[in-house]
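We treat protein structure as text, and this decision shapes the records that our systems exchange. We quote a single record here, exactly as it is kept in our systems:
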Amino acid sequence: MLQLYAAELHSRLLLGSARYPSPAVLSAAVRAARCEIVTVSLRRESAGERAGQGFWSLIRELGVRVLPNTAGCHSVKEAVTTAHMAREVFGTAWIKLEVIGEDDTLQPDVFALTDAARVLAAEGFEVFPYTTEDLVVAERLLAAGCRVLMPWGAPIGSGRGLNNLFGLKALRAHFPDVPLIIDAGMGVPSHAAQALELGFDAVLVNTAIAEARDPVQMAAAFAQALEAGYAARAAGPIEPRDFAAPSTPLIGTAFRG
């Protein structure tokens, strides 16, 4: 069971809702993924009244939680204002907080992110910050009131998987009791399985599913990979070795003198 703030969830796969070929494909992908949380950009869904109504109808039919995000924001003021609007529109205290600091990599501005998180947490928001794997930033986000962290695996939409294994392992080791969700950079299901094998609690995927040749099949594949990764972690993987270790015992075997 995955606990995020007061919510208890069975699925460890969160789905982004952007870039799908159609609402019907998004709906089918959500069902195939068996996910319980869908993220949505307030700006995109509010672009047109009919589009927003269509999205809400889809969410109601699927029965999933919505995690609004502040995608596209570049300052504390912009992110806080967007979060307030999202709380009114979607009726939830959850907010995926994004404050972008670099346009080419879409790397978060961790200074503005921490400031915005402090403001929103004090106002009763349950903040899911999109951050880097930096340990100092993680400490400050937790001190600001965050109870979940969402470190990137790689730049958004890059499909590169887990770029900094050392940093991600260190983050997991330093915060063993904090829910950690890999957000951004997933390319194939094996990336998601690897994240859970490392001890991360969940993965958020958008582009890798939405832009696949068959988004529905890819959504199902990610769901299966996460189940395998979580089971492997629970089973206790062996530690890597620098030398061979025979799998067949030598005692009792015939040998020539």
Summary: The longest strand covers residues 126-131. The chain is about 45% helix and 15% strand. The mean pLDDT is 91.
